[in-house]
């Protein structure tokens, strides 16, 4: 008798991942895989160019409209498709070749970036042009992002997956450190259009790189057969596993309020410190510099548990609150570095825990749910935080951005403690009692 189409996959079997802290020589062990080295090298260029486009895009909207709230609308346009269609993207990723999907999506990104470059360089660009293209980019991201998440597993296999996630985060943040600085220089020198052109070329480079990967060395995931109820199947699977559900819930709060840095930092650059496009690029680079350090530190992490995620969200929120109370530009910039480091430590932990907790046959749908709250939350948070900043100022906006996720982490921690997932213990360190949160997962 055949199984029902909505029968849940079996619980994830133990995966061959390293449980002990790796030696220093294995800090970047995932790069020992030739395909991953090639993919990572091109990814660095693509991430740098992608950050260049995002910074130029947000600043161009601010120039055209003079409103921080309009920057929030731009963020909403780019991430709303994930909120609306993200789960369907995961179904497609589970059904088709991840490599082929990424070649199509990166080609589409190249076309859209080239179009935005032409509109800007010819001087005819208007805010609504940017919003439409941002929305189309978001539609492509519905498929590209979960495909990219799962494709990393196919490149390196499960053994080096956690390290590969950390390396990917390092590359993303290194691009986030270089890209805003380059984009700020281009904005001051020649305007926004050239940043969009650079991103178009970088996307073409990704397509070429994907074509050169050694397909015989990929750890291919068998495509899921078409059947009814696959979307609901993924949701049920995620809800049944605390190691997936808790990170998703906390990431939802964090993405809506705290991952609205383009909105917040554009306000600090234009209204609080009056440092223009160059200062806006420096602020984003400061966050990325801290995040790069956090991503590299995450490669040294031996174990990821729920308390890692809960504590990470709380401390990142607390650092955002602290940043919002700093009145001087130099310590504010230093505080952004700390925010970036703390944020990436918990985000890489969250990504690792969700991927390693999900069955490979359903991972595309699970990751689409995770990406939905990660990116879709920003579609809600962009306009929301834009309104907060416009009505109450940038400092209040930054405090709100940190306080709400920190409060959510406290509530989730208390719920887990009540259910036995976490409890408070006192450990002795250097002959002194130190309180610590401990748990099974």
Automatic annotation (TrEMBL):
CDD domains: MFS_MefA_like (cd06173)
Highest taxon listed in the record's lineage: Bacteria
InterPro entries tied to this protein: MFS_dom, MFS_trans_sf, TM_effector
Domain Major facilitator superfamily (MFS) profile: residue ranges: 27-420
Topology in the lipid bilayer: Multi-pass membrane protein
Cellular compartment(s): Cell membrane
UniProtKB keywords: Cell membrane, Membrane, Transmembrane, Transmembrane helix, Transport
Record-given protein name: MFS transporter
Lineage: Bacteria, Bacillati, Actinomycetota, Actinomycetes, Micrococcales
């Amino acid at each position: 008798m055949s199984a029902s189409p909505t029968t849940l996959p079996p619980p994830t079997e133990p995966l061959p991942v390293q449980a002990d802290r790796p030696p220093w020589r294995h800090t970047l062990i995932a790069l020992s895989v030739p395909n991953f080295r090639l993919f990572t090298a091109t990814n660095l260029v693509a991430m740098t160019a992608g950050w260049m486009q995002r910074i130029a895009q947000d600043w161009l909207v601010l120039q055209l409209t003079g409103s921080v709230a309009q920057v929030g609308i731009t963020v909403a346009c780019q991430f709303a498709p994930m909120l609306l269609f993200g789960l369907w993207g995961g179904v497609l990723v589970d059904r088709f070749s991840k490599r082929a999907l990424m070649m199509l999506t990166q080609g589409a990104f190249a076309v859209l970036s080239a179009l935005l470059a032409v509109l800007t360089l010819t001087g005819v660009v208007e805010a609504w042009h940017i919003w439409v293209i941002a929305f189309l980019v978001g539609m492509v991201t519905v498929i590209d992002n979960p495909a990219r998440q799962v494709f990393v597993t196919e490149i390196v296999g499960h053994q080096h997956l956690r390290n590969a996630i950390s390396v990917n985060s390092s590359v993303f943040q290194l691009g986030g450190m270089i890209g805003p600085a380059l984009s700020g220089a281009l904005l001051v020198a020649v305007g926004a259009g050239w940043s969009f052109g650079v991103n178009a070329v970088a996307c073409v480079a990704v397509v070429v790189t994907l074509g050169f990967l050694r397909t015989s060395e990929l750890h291919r995931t068998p495509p899921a057969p078409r059947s009814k109820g696959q979307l609901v199947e993924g949701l049920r699977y995620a809800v049944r596993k605390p190691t997936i559900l808790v990170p998703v819930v906390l990431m939802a709060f964090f993405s809506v309020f705290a991952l609205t840095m383009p909105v917040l930092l554009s306000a600090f650059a234009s209204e609080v410190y009056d440092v223009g496009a160059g200062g806006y690029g420096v602020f984003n680079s400061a966050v990325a510099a801290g995040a790069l350090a956090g991503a590299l530190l995450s490669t040294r992490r031996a174990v990821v548990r729920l308390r890692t995620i809960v504590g990470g969200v709380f401390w990142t929120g607390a650092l955002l609150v602290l940043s919002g109370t700093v009145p001087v530009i130099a310590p504010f910039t230093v505080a952004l570095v700390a925010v970036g480091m703390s944020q990436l430590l918990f985000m890489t932990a969250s990504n690792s825990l969700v991927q390693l907790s999900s069955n490979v046959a359903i991972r595309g749908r699970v990751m689409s749910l995770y990406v939905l709250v990660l990116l879709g939350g920003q579609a809600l948070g962009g306009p929301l935080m834009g309104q907060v900043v416009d009505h109450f100022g940038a400092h209040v906006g930054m405090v709100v951005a940190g306080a709400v996720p920190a409060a959510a982490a406290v509530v989730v921690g208390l719920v887990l403690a009540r259910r036995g997932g976490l409890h408070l213990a006192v450990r002795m360190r250097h002959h002194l009692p130190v309180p610590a949160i401990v748990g099974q997962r």
